[in-house]
Amino acid sequence: MAARLLLRSALRAATVSRASPALVLNRGMAAGGIPTDEEQATGLEKVIMTAAKEGADPYNLMRPKEYAGSKADPHMVPSISNKRIVGCEEDNTAVVWFWLHQGEAQRCPSCGAHYQLVAHELPH
Fold first, then answer.
1. Which annotated residues bind Zn(2+) (predicted)?
2. Of 39, 57, 93, 106, whose CB is crowded by the most CB atoms within 10 A?
């Protein structure tokens, strides 16, 4: 008895699955096809996608640019104020914290790398 029920349900599933793809395909294509991510995006997601197309990164989602850390090419640290606390890792054992102030590049007291504060506007 159980084998008959299992066989019937398998037979029904097989006959339904053959007819369904054509119906689903026709119904989806009637409205112009499946929309892309850009067409479906709304709100913050749409703002981020539009900015990415223009090459901007308003929410700092992309990986930051690499700097040499020398006096001529210091690490750029974005800040919305005129000072910011910066941490520099020393020998993978401890973090050395120091204040970075607006103006010229400043040197880390531990490793000697140079950092410079740059103004950053929040995208409201």
1. 88, 108, 111
2. 106
